[in-house]
Amino acid sequence: MEKPIFPLMQSGTLELSGTALKRLEELKIGGIDVTAMATMDALKMLRLSDVVNGNDQLVAVDELTDLTSAKLSLANEAETEVESLSEHSSGDSDSGYDLGGDGDLEDVSLVSTASVSGGSLSSRSSVTGGSTESLPLAVAQQSQQQLLLQQQQQQRFAVLSYEQVSRVHDVMNETVSIHGRGNFPTLELRLRDLVTLVRAKLEADGVPVKDMRINGGAASYVLALDRCQPQAYNDLDLIFGVDLSSARTFDRIKTAVLDSLLDFLPAGVSRTRMLSCSLKEAYVSKMVKVTEGDRWSLISLGTNHRGKNVELKFVHNMRRQFEFSVDSFQIILDSLVLFYDCASTMPISESFYPTVVAESVYGDFRQAHYHLHHKMIATRNPEEIRGGGLLKYCNLLVKDYRPADPDQIKTFERYMCSRFFIDFPDVGQQRLKLDNYLWNHFVGADEALKYDYLMTLYSVVDESTVCLMGHERRQTLSLIQELAYQAYYADQQQQHHQRQMQQQQQQQHAANHPASYGHAPVYEVRISGCQPTVVYSSSGGYFYAPAAAPPPPPQTSLPPPATTSTPPPATSTTSTTSGSSTTAAVTTASPPSVSAATPCYPCSTPCACSCTWMPCS
């Protein structure tokens, strides 16, 4: 049984406004009818005691049940007509799902209905290219093609688990700071509030929103498994599906976004003197409009390059929406936003959470998720990847991602290098692109990987570039090498600064806590390369050890010089006994003196040692 849109709610009242009810009826995710996923038994679990009142603010569960059963019955009738016309068709289609969505193939139910209701058989035969007897076979083939397309579409989607839905909920409720230039205040907002407000202003201005999605690094962070290391993400990328067939729609989109920012200004800020051009200069860091081939628009909010920027992308059509399988995920937010509208006061729990669907535009969700979990690099049609794909590929390599197909990776590298030099043919453009990429994607802990990244890029360009002349290739390699040297020097400077700061902290700690450094182990180092032997003690510093006796002089005819030696000290003990008392007198000689045969080496400073090996003069 599929998960209902509001699962396991045992009792209570579900308040739906007219707008929310309309969205619930029309809600389709990638062609999947989410209301059909709420089965009859699950909907009957919502036992509502209230009935519909005069202002249409409440809706009974029976009406939702009738709506779902009506959709199921219509789909079953269409399927029955197709089966009655085709004798060769095998297998049943999912009547509760509408996965076609693209409009490329003609609806089978419409074809069969027209043929049964007495349509022109001659026109049908001209379409199939044969006689009227081949009409059922043609319908069956078309039905099989549509079923195959539905199976391929089903591989693109997956329903998120509770842990993943909880992560999406945390991302949507995270407070994001949008810094303004100059004296403009910083905007503190939640992503769920921004999405809801932008959609409301667009629809109020006559621009309907088909769906809302979150993609990029935030989507990969949500879909990463719990036992994996969390995926870091720099930006929050949102996609709004809109109709951009009219050029005026671009202006309406810009106005809606800027008006939304006006509502997020802090209290006490005068909004009457805020113009759209002022808000654009203060809070918009990038605006892109594409009208040739693809039709989409991008508005990037935030001027803090070291923080998380919010990028709003409004898409009519885009042929290439991903670079590699690990960044092809898009999480559809319509059901989650509808949940916020209907049950804003109820927290998300393991027994009560909305059904959220994710899509992989790579084409196979399971395979893309496997690549994300095992850190593998895979793509399709690498010749379609824009010039930045080469930079993203090297970024994955330096983060320990490995090719899923090592045999074809060299071909992919040549495609990506060729596309990079087509999009950025001049060395100045290449430098600008590399500087921007390094500045935006190597932040925080990833900043230490900048040198390794540039050396990896140098290796890939050196081995896989086949479309440049010799001097052009050397110029690009020299540029990458220069940037690598700069990154290495900056890294060394930062490490040196960190070591100095650490030494200062240690010295300050030693000055504030001298007792903690009084129990250091005592050790001695003997330096025996000179005479006398020098001993270094960690507790007393340098001192001299007793010098060894000089070797005997060689035997000659002359007699050796006379030397006098000091006799050993005499110790005498005298005992006197008188009556009951006994007195003992002990006489001890003075300390021994150094013999003349043992020379004394004077010290310049008094000896710090406490030993009595040899007195220092």
Please explain how this structure is put together.
- The protein has 19 helices and 19 strands.
- It is of the alpha+beta class and 617 residues long.
- The strands form six sheets. An eight-stranded mixed β-sheet has the order 3-12-11-6-7-10-9-8. Strands 15-16-17 form a three-stranded antiparallel β-sheet, with no helix packed on it. It has a two-stranded antiparallel sheet with strand order 1-2.
- α11 (248-263) crosses α12.
- The protein is globular and about 125 Å long.
- It starts with 17 loop residues before the first helix and ends in a 30-residue tail after the last strand.
Helix fraction by DSSP (H/I, runs of at least 4): 40-55%
- Approximate strand percentage: 5-15%
Supply Rg: 42 Å
- What class would the helix/strand composition place it in? alpha+beta
> How would you describe the shape?
globular
Query: What is the terminal separation in angstroms?
Result: 100 Å
Quantity of strands, as a count: 19
Count of DSSP H/I helices: 19
Low-confidence stretches: 1-14, 35-75, 81-132, 563-568, 570-617
Strand count, sense and barrel status of the largest sheet are: 8 strands, mixed
Spatial strand sequence of the major β-sheet: 3-12-11-6-7-10-9-8
What is the mean predicted local confidence, pLDDT?
A: 73
